[in-house]
Design a protein that fits this description.
293 residues; alpha/beta; Nucleotidyltransferase, domain 5; 5-stranded mixed beta sheet; 4-stranded mixed beta sheet; 35% helix; globular
């Protein structure tokens, strides 16, 4: 019996922030692409929506064939395979449970950003969808937003929660229509733009870096190195990022392999830290490794 394969991924430019999802459904030599996005949501919701939309498409097409579904979200896959307790996104879990009852599915985890052809394709499409949502947000606010990457988490009263554990930008823009709900976040002088790091709790101007493989601009905390968000590709941001070229996929793979060759187990958290390395740091590490071994 022919097997149907589904590959999924989600992306969020800020967590929460503008986001996107994508899935590739491969069957009988053909492909179906399912993709979309939302203006503000978390990465976990996008990982789940990619799976849900793909499975709903298969169910609607009445394809009665075993399914292999691949995702790089260990949280989602382990929750499905090991029946982990569900603490968030309960609306999506209910929807996922409803559609998977109709199908025969084998859920498999795949390592993200590890040269997996279909996973990398899904990742690129999910990021593209997130970028579309960011641009829609910019267009809808016109000139009312001083910083184009602005995103906030609101509390139950619909107001910005300054203590919420999310990354947000603080800018000077009071009194303008459309930003009244953000008054309490306006603390600094005009033209000075700062990020708030959810990890260390400090305000930071951000450390900009260029992802040479994709041309995207990553912003990290200058205090603790924590990833904050992806920045808009403005001329100013590109100039900042050009001074700090980040590790590319080929170098990342070599660094991970080098560390694994010493017997060390590399976790997803380790890989996240390595992704903040510059290309120069990666090359210095590899040169040192070759000298030692």
């Amino acid at each position: 019996m022919k097997r149907l394969q589904i590959f999924t991924d989600g992306s969020s430019l800020g967590n929460p922030g503008p986001c996107g999802y994508a899935a590739i459904i491969a069957y009988d030599g053909k492909e179906k692409i399912v993709r979309g996005g939302e203006s503000t949501a978390t990465n976990n919701r996008m990982e789940m929506l990619a799976i849900i939309h793909a499975l709903e498409w298969v169910a609607n097409e009445r394809l009665q064939t075993p399914i292999e579904l691949f995702s790089d979200s260990r949280l989602v896959i382990e929750s499905l395979n090991k029946n982990w307790k569900r603490k968030a996104n309960l609306d999506l879990w209910e929807r996922l449970d409803r559609v998977r009852k109709k199908l025969k599915i084998r859920f498999q985890w795949v390592k993200g950003h590890a040269d997996h052809f279909y996973n990398n394709r899904c990742d690129r499409m999910a990021v593209e969808e997130a970028e579309k949502q960011r641009k829609k947000m910019i267009a809808s606010h016109g000139n009312h937003l001083d910083e184009r990457d602005l995103h906030f988490e609101k509390n139950s009263n619909g107001k910005v929660d300054m203590d919420s554990k999310t990354n947000f930008i603080i800018s000077e823009n009071t009194g303008k229509k459309g930003v009244e709900s953000r008054k309490e976040a306006v603390l600094f002088k005009k033209e000075e733009k700062l990020f708030h790091c959810a990890k260390c709790g400090k305000k930071t101007a951000g450390l900009y870096g260029l992802l040479t493989d994709s041309g995207m601009i990553r912003v990290d905390c200058t205090e603790c190195g924590n990833y904050l968000m992806f920045a808009e590709k403005t001329l100013e941001n590109r100039k900042k990022a050009a001074k700090r070229r980040l590790i590319n996929k080929e170098a990342l793979k070599k660094v991970v392999q080098a560390q694994q060759s010493t017997g060390r187990k590399i976790s997803e958290n380790d890989i996240k830290k390595i992704k903040a390395w510059t290309q120069k740091q990666a090359q210095e590490f590899l040169n040192k490794h070759q000298t030692l071994f």
